[in-house]
Design a protein that fits this description.
Layout: E1 2-6, E2 18-32, E3 42-49, E4 54-61, E5 70-83, E6 88-107, E7 116-139, E8 143-161, H1 168-171, E9 186-189, E10 191-195, E11 201-204, E12 210-212, E13 222-226, E14 231-241, E15 244-254, E16 257-259, E17 308-310, E18 313-324, H2 327-330, E19 337-345, E20 349-351, E21 363-364, E22 377-378, E23 386-394
Antiparallel strand pairs: 1-2, 2-5, 3-4, 5-6, 6-7, 7-8, 8-14, 9-13, 10-11, 11-12, 14-15, 15-18, 16-17, 18-19, 18-20, 19-23, 21-22
């Protein structure tokens, strides 16, 4: 449910320079339920066996009569304000979302017949601000300049998430996770202490002691950041001079992290393999372990804090220049409108210091698999610049 109070339309409001003044508020509840599990045993049919003459069946879903609806209660308040003949305006929204009975897979006693089952395990709070600003700084018969700015800021916290994580690798793994007391999609790992004189990875324990990474325990795990941007921005400028148009758009995503692609001791296809530890003394100038066909460091080193990067970036997403032909020139050939344009996309990017990849295309390994040739992050090709020339017309 929701409502809007259009204050500028009230009889008592007599500010002529205000074109719009609205106050808005809404409240709603959304629900979600598991579609793959329920209170009854669900079987899945296999293939026909010509030897037995029958069809095998497997268990698709174990009986689960404890599931409840996952609920999200959303409260939103906002204001819209336009002045000076709509040449300047702002919309401001604040929202608060409280999700309870979050559905997630949890470990169960394997002797029950399954090792994982969906349960109502937690609660998450989301709150944020969204701002939209538009304006026309200049407007004349020959020239105009319009600008639009959008920003969204989100702060979330996992209030409760009762998933069993009894091992360090339950926290520091390829996937971002939800953990109570931290933002959603958190990245966790180890406090890197360097390479020893045998080329093995060491980490700091909770009390500051140095140990081999494979000897770390849950108490040694540290929070490294969230994989989801906390702030998103966009700015659009549009200029018009007689028959010419010029527009450009900047975007930015800020506040999140990513796991770097690294050499973890066995993945010889890594771009950092030449920087690995090779002889005593190399530990003074490299972070990468010694090469071996299989090593325990591949389960730990990719998740050390030294391999976390700042994923914030800004880009010139679009730049377009266009010319619209005078109708006096095109009416003679039966056209009512004709326009030629040159457009460029992703022309440059700005990233944090030391970031040598495109954070927008960087991918983390969400396959949940770790092996001698695997990695926690993939350095894929950056989003390439694109150029277009076009002609649009109508009759």
């Amino acid at each position: 449910m929701g409502g809007t109070w259009k204050i500028a339309n009230e009889d008592f409001f007599n500010a002529g320079w205000v074109d719009r003044l609205n106050l808005r508020a809404s409240y709603g509840v959304n629900g979600n339920i598991s579609l793959s599990e329920g209170p009854y045993l669900i079987l899945s049919a296999g293939s026909f066996n010509p030897t037995t003459g029958g069809v095998s069946n497997g268990i698709s879903s174990f009986p689960n009569n404890s599931l409840r609806w996952e609920k999200t209660r959303t409260t939103n308040v906002g204001v819209d304000f336009d002045v000076f003949g709509n040449r300047l305006g702002i919309s401001l929204d604040y929202y608060y979302k409280k999700s309870t009975d979050i559905l997630a897979a949890d470990a169960t006693d394997p002797t029950t017949g399954t090792s994982r089952m969906t349960r109502n395990l937690g609660a998450i709070d989301n709150r944020g601000v969204e701002i939209s600003l538009h304006g026309t700084p200049v407007r004349s018969s020959d020239f105009s300049w319009d600008i639009m700015f959008n920003m969204s800021f989100n702060k979330n916290k996992v209030v409760e998430y009762n998933v069993a994580r009894n091992y360090p690798t339950s926290w520091a793994w390829s996937q971002a996770i939800h953990a109570a007391g931290h933002p959603m999609f958190g990245l966790f790992g180890y406090n890197f202490a360097g390479i020893d004189d045998r080329g093995m990875v060491t980490v700091y324990g909770k009390d500051g002691d140095v140990k081999y990474a494979q000897n770390a325990n849950v108490d040694d795990i540290i929070y490294l950041g969230t994989a989801v941007p906390t702030t998103e921005l966009s700015v659009i400028n549009a200029f018009k001079y007689r028959n010419w148009d010029l527009s450009f758009m900047f975007i930015a995503k800020l506040g999140h992290k990513y796991r770097k692609d690294v050499f973890q001791g066995s993945n010889i296809n890594s771009r950092f393999v030449a920087q690995r530890w090779q002889k005593p003394g190399d530990e003074n100038h490299t972070i990468y372990p010694a090469l071996s066909s299989w090593n325990s460091d591949l389960f730990y080193f990719p998740y050390c804090d030294v391999n976390i990067g700042n994923a914030s970036y800004a880009k010139l997403r679009d730049l377009t220049i266009a010319y619209t032909f005078d109708r006096s020139l095109i009416n003679s050939i039966g056209m009512s409108e004709a326009r030629i344009y040159l457009q460029g996309r992703n022309l440059f990017r700005i990233t944090a210091k030391g970031v040598d990849i495109d954070p927008e295309t960087m991918e983390m390994d969400y396959s949940n698999g770790v092996g001698a040739s695997s990695n926690a992050g993939f350095s894929v090709l950056p989003r390439s610049a694109e150029y277009y020339v076009g002609l649009s017309f109508s009759f």
